Structures are given as C-alpha cells and as structure tokens.
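Message: A physicist's question: would you kindly supply an amino acid chain plus fold tokens?
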Amino acid sequence: MTTPARQMHLSVLALAAGNNIAAWRMEDAQAGSMNLPLLKHMVQTAERGKFDFFFIADTPHTAPNVHPSWVVRLEPLTLLSVLSAITTHIGLAATVSTTYTEPYNLARYMASLDHLSGGRAAWNVVGGAFPQAAANFGRLPHPAHGERYARAREFLDVTKGLWDSWEEGALVMDKATGKYIDAAKMHTLNHEGKHFSVKGPLNILRPPQGYPVIVQAGASDEGRDFAAATSEAIFCVVANIEEGKAFRDDIRARAKQHGRNPDHLKVLPGIFVIIGQTEAEARAKLAALGEIIEADTAMKVLTDYLGQDLSQHPLDAPVPDLPATEMMQGYAVALLEIAREKEMTLCELRDLVAATQGHVLFMGTPEQIADDLEEWFLAGAADGFQLMPHYFPAPFDEFVDLVVPILQERGLFRKDYTGTTLREHMGLPFPEHPAKKSA
C-alpha cells in the first residue's frame, strides 16, 4: 500500500474515572482520578501506542453529582510534571482557564512543564464555560461569552510575550568571565491592556518549543475564529463525516484568512470506540454500559452541558426547543444539532451524552474501527482523533494493541516517533523569537 501524503494524529482524553459517566462500575475498570499508578499506566500505554499527546481536561469547580471524573482529581500541570519523568516522547497537554488564572502564572507553569519534559507541553486554552467556577475566585458574575473570549485573546498574547522574555542563548554561564546571563537578550513586556497589566520579564528561559503547542475546542462562531487564528490543534464534536469535513473545511478557510498555513492546525474530533472480536460482541459491550447508567446522574450531566434544567420535560418526547442562554454556545449547540438531525427524544439525548458526551461512536472489530478511522481521515473530515475511552485501562489497551497496528500497517499512522518534541510529532513549525524576525 502506498503511504498517504499525510498521517493521522492521535491523542487520548485521560479522564481516569472514564469518559462514560458510569463505566467506572465495570468489573475490570480501575476507576479514580487520584489513582497515580493507573495514570502512569495510561500515559505509558499512550506512548507505547506512539500517540501524539496525552490530554488532561480540567475545570476549577466540583460537586458530588457532577461527572465522576470531575468530582475529585489531581491538578493537571502538577500531574503532568510527574508523568514527564516516566515518559520520553509523548506530548503532555492540560486545560488551564484564561478566566480563572493569570498570564504570568500560566506562562511560568507551562514553560516549566515544557523544560521538564524536553519540549512536550501543550496548553488547552479555555475561557471557562461553567459558571459554577466563578464563586471560587470572587469573580461573580461569571463573565459573558464574548467577554471570556476577549480576555482569552489578550491572555494568550500576553503569555506568548512572556515566553519571549529571553532569547535563545541568553544563559551564558561563562566561568572564565563571570558572565552568567546576557542581559541584552532579555526583553521586558510592559503590557497594558483592557484585562491585564503585566510588566515582565518571565523568570524562566524560553520554552524548548518556543511556545508550548496551543490547543482549543471552539465550536461557536467566535470560538472557531479564535481557534483558526491562534491554535494548532482543535477538538470538536461532530456526528458524521459530512459534519467533520464541513467543520475542518471551515477552520482551514478561517486559518487562511488569518494569514496562517491551514496545515499548521490539526482538527481532532472526539471519538468513543467499543471493540469486540465480532460486531455482536461490541454491541453487547455497549448494552452492558447502558445498563449501569444512573438516570438522575445522566440528566444532571446533560443539564450541566446545556445550562438548563430539563428534568421537568417528558423523556419520551422530542428534545424541546430551548431558549438561548450564555451556555448555549459551542458544545451545547452541537449537541442540540445532533438531537434535531436524528430526531432524538430527550431520553435518547440524555443517554447519548451519558455514554459518549455527544461524540461519534465507532463500534465493531479492530478492522472495522480502523476502516472507519481511515474513511474519515482520507475524506478530509479529520487530521486525526481524540480517543475518549469509556473507562481505563482495558478499552484503551485494546485500542493500542489491536487498532493502532492496523493503522500502522496501512501507512496511516507512525510506527515510531521521528522527533522528540510535540511540535515535531505534529509537524508544526518552531515559532522564532520576535527579535530574530526583526533582525
């Protein structure tokens, strides 16, 4: 088989209590977002599978009845620093909110992770969709959607400016002359904007990748434009190949309008995968997952995503028309579009979100799964995929052991890493320091 001109990229969403809200109850599940041995196994499995990166999502709030993977969990950047010490190649990505942190802190945290990992850090830039977080930071009310994006744009600009505080080669450490640092290669940001006033410089050298890889999950019109202008990988919720291709075409067109090379932005739809030795076995696994989902918890998760209480609506009726709210952006809109397209009842939408969080479900034998991924990839509906295992470790191990080798044999996915940084894995350019551009 002729190797395709491009190869797909793979990441895994590492929710250690599982992406399915009830799958932690499966007999072979090793549930627990505080379970460090499990998390170590997960990242080492991803690296064994030659995945581009290992992704830990996060949000700075909790409650007893939220998704089990969100109730209690380790702070992601601290965790990824630990995981960087037991891996050598795989990228390490984390969500950090631009609404509920500060650019100087974030720039320092991410630069540290990039140095500690040898250039493998990525930042999932989010404004923070959940208003429950606001009370934890004394920032009531939760900023409006447009305000969060305006802050995020300025936040990202400031953070990149801080990462540029030092040119490469600024650390001299010449014992003969006693010169430790070349002060001429230090740059003070002196940023004054609507949302931030940041002097700088940052007290850490420029990250090995120049900037950690920027990841986003924009689905609204404003989110798509922000992602097209600034991100290098984008997660998305799409229901079929046609939606995937339309989303990717739109993002690439917007990137070009912003003067970017569209090939420097990788679109990674989220996918749920259920593997069986036969298609019937895979369907039986799905049925087993459905039997353990608790209805009230499933409705609470749907309510959180849509920002509206639907518990008073009849479950066997079509999904009701909902009034526009601040939460009716991005992911929520995608869910409702899927429900309308498929003429789903409220019960069906509830169970879909509980099982897959609204993402596409691939189910069948390893060969069938590989066929589906190849079809999406070659059709231009994706540059790769974000795998969202129902639980860990078995379903993820199965994907790495059974599906990845088929993709490799077909020339669709790497057999080994050819670089050491995440930018190299993803075919992304190194961002030159602004001082070199102006020289």
Q: What stands out?
A: The chain has one domain: 9-277+361-437. The chain has a mean pLDDT of 90.
